Amino acid sequence: MEEYGIKRVMVYALTLLAMGAGLSGWMKTTWAFSLLWGLIIGIGTGFTSAVLGVVITNRWFKERKGLVMGILTSSTATGQLVFLPLV
Predict the structure, then answer these.
(1) Which of 2, 29, 44, 65 could form a disulfide with 16 if both were Cys (CB 3.0 to 4.6 A apart)?
(2) Separation CA 31–CA 33 (nearest Å)
(3) What is d(CA 26, CA 46) in angstroms, rounded to the nearest whole number?
(4) 63: left (phi over 0), alpha (psi -120 to 50) or beta
(5) Long-range CB contact pairs, 25-30, < 8 A, 24+
(6) What percentage of the chain reaches a pLDDT higher than 70?
């Protein structure tokens, strides 16, 4: 992210997420689901979650970086624990 710029990486990641979510309406087969949600949305989510959290933590927090990263990671896991069963 630091090599290409956060803005550029986030635009690409959000474009992948929007493209994958937008194409979901036309899914009819299992392979299309695996391609869209496993690959396209997986890559977009991977760019936006852990990597962005590390960059933000290193830029904004001088002390207690580990605590902040732990809170970000645990909030992601908690969100999955709560919302995935609902979905």
Answers:
(1) 44
(2) 5
(3) 24
(4) beta
(5) none
(6) 97
Residue 8 DSSP one-character state: H
Mean pLDDT, residues 30-43 taken together: 85
Structural domain harbouring 51: 6-86
Q: Three-state secondary structure along 11-79? A: HHHHHHHHHHHHHHHHCCCHHHHHHHHHHHHHHHHHHHCHHHHHHHHHHHCCCCHHHHHHHHHHHHHHH
Number of domains forming the structure of the chain? 1
CA 60, CA 62: separation in Å to the nearest integer? 7
Position 59 in a domain: yes
pLDDT computed for residue 30 by the predictor:
86
Stretch (H or E) spanning 82: helix 65-86
pLDDT value, residue 18: 92
Examine residue 1 and state whether it is found in any structural domain, yes or no.
no
pLDDT band at residue 15 using 50, 70 and 90 as cut-offs: very high
